[in-house]
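General statements about sequence and structure are easier to judge against a single worked case. When preparing material for the folding task, we compiled for one chain both its residues and its backbone structure tokens. The amino acid sequence and the backbone structure tokens for this protein are reproduced below:
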Amino acid sequence: MSTRFADRFAACARANRPALGIFTMAGDPDLETGSKILAALPAAGADFIELGMPFSDPMADGPGIQAAGQRALAGGQTLNKTLAMVAEFRKTDTTTPVLLMGYYNPIYIHGVDAFIADALAAGVDGLIIVDLPPEEDAEFCVPALKAGLNFIRLATPTTDDRRLPVVLKNTSGFVYYVSMTGITGAAIKSYAAVGDAVKRIKAHTDLPVAVGFGIKTADDAATVGRDADGVVVGTAICNAVGASLADGKATAGTVAAVTTLVAGLASGAKRARS
């Protein structure tokens, strides 16, 4: 089992701050620019990276992440190209945890055994598969865990104390708490409720708990990071890419638009507990 997530969360805990997770869509707006964004994230302040696997029917994604996926698919991004991006990233960075986040259909088409082998060979640390519930663990989650990949589960505001042990059973790496019901990109309605939910989950597991959905600014990261072990930002990143484009194409400012935003978010995470 990869220890990059455990090592990184432990290092952030020693620094008395939450880990900053950054979601970026693989191949957005094109493979070359997407690869440059991926390579630039650690220096900008990302502690771990969620690399989106573009899919044509992303049911949990809001407009910003959907648009990023559509741009990537239009640019010819495939699952094999996404795995190749991670392999290229690993040539210069062997410490930053990288997980792949997306939906099961592309993995099923690729073949479960082949995907697990290819992901490990590329240097992937973990997976978040949005549309695979714990009841389907035998099909993909358990083989992935046995092979050495972390499998990160989503807990939501509707995950009660009866359901939570089922969600946590085969979870490793960290627990991803979705701060709201609905799709990505909406605003957090109650920071206090998010903090209470994090504490409740931590009473059931020793794993770190990271919070995503609705975190857009440095202040959001600072507020949520008081209680959470990690904060994850995705829609704001995808929107920054989209806003930097000209006629749908990358510009000289596309990578910088992302790294500037990430640096600001990192500053928020660093002052979360100060």
